[in-house]
Amino acid sequence: MKKDVKTDILETARKLFNEQGYNGVSMRDIAGALGISVGNLTYYFKRKEDLLEAVALRQLEGYQKKAPAASLAELDGHFRRKLAFQKGNAYYFRHYTQLAQISPKVYEMQRGIIRDQYEFYGETFRGFKSHGRMMEDTVPGQTRHLIQALVTVSLFGTAMGEPDGERLPCFWSLIWPMLTETGRREYREEVERRGGV
């Protein structure tokens, strides 16, 4: 029974954090939504910060490092899955830096995930270059800067209130200048034609 109550608390808190933001939700709000007393809620989570940490860690439990995308269609799928996850966990991305300050555990997970994102894009783009889909850098650090831009837009687009439909075209707008004619043709045939950007 306790496990079900704890699960209900975590799901309700995540829902309220998504709807009203972390700062807009109190322990009383969460208890009220669950139909329990604040005392019962604090039996499981002493402070709102503890609850936020548990919600965030639960959402990141299933995180696994991704294999590099072998095609532009796979990269588009990666973007779409990432955006869907962010929409379902908007609180996490709206309060990304605040979460890191509240919880050292969450901060370490965030750092690991960002590191993995840099590796994912780096390996993906190396593969694209070796298969003629992407140009070599025309200015020093161009690919690294592209990766920085993709990670930044991905992480902070939600926090900045950017509409969900704006980020996918933004990702491809950043990548497009580095695509070769082969890459652009593949994009038109495999991404755009299948309902992409």
TrEMBL record:
Residues 26-45 bind DNA. The keyword Transcription applies. GO terms for molecular function: DNA-binding transcription factor activity; transcription cis-regulatory region binding. It holds the Pfam family TetR_N. Keywords: DNA-binding, Transcription, Transcription regulation. Residues 3-63 form the HTH tetR-type domain. The keyword Transcription regulation applies. This is TetR/AcrR family transcriptional regulator. It comes from Lawsonibacter hominis.
